[in-house]
Amino acid sequence: MLLNVILWIVGLLLVALGIWQVRQPLAHYRSLEATQANLRRYDDWRGGRLGDDSTRTGADEMRDLLRNRVRLWAGVVAVGVVLIVAGFVIR
Asked: What pTM was computed for the model?
């Protein structure tokens, strides 16, 4: 019984921490995606860019960093959920 309670508490703490930590990078990532979509629409409206668009920008690097941070904290949330379920399964 004590092990179950410990697993539930630790699982809930991990879920809460993961959700708290994933909010800011996910919001920033969505903002970067919206800005990129707006730039694409503007370029299409203007008739496209004249230069090569295959170079990697700082925004691309930031998106990768934020995506990795979201994956990390989503993994923490998943571990928390597993611990909560384990608390119910273990007798």
From this structure: 0.77
